[in-house]
Amino acid sequence: METHVEKINAILDAISQDIAEREKVADNAMHVLEKMKPSDVEYKEANLQFSANSFVAAYLRHIKDTVKDKDYQSLKRLEQCIRFHHYQQHTKGALDDHSDISLGQATVAVILGGYVERFFK
To answer: What is the mean pLDDT of residues 41-54?
Structure first.
């Protein structure tokens, strides 16, 4: 049976991997933004990718930073934080309003939902 320390480590590892993935996409988008002559479409898409992925990475970093210790209470606090933000994104977030931020919010909702299914079911 998995201990709470092992579970916290597994969750933090998953969050860290998702942060790294989002930061890589944002970095690649910044390279496009720094090109001398990107097309208008290329530039707009890079801005969207940079903003959405930076948003997701920062959001996940905030959740990861809720863990200060690796005790049982920290695990419960982490679970509550993930469930809370997952719920809020689905009930309060504008996941499908076709604005730029809705892409980031929808991505956060999907990632957090994956954590709930993977670690807390």
So the answer is: 94
Distance CA 6, CA 64 (A): 15
DSSP 47-106: HHHHHHHHHHHHHHHHHHTT--S-SHHHHHHHHHHHHHHHHHHHHTS-TTS-SHHHHHHH
Distances (CA, A) of 14 to 7, 9, 19, 44, 96: 11, 9, 9, 30, 26
Nearest to 31 by CA among 45, 20, 11: 45
* 15, 21, 114 from 28: Cα distances, Å: 20, 11, 25
Look at the block and give the residue holding tokens 């920290």: 74
Give me Rg for the CA atoms of the chain: 16
Residue-wise pLDDT for 88-103, tens only, equals 998 887 777 767 778 8
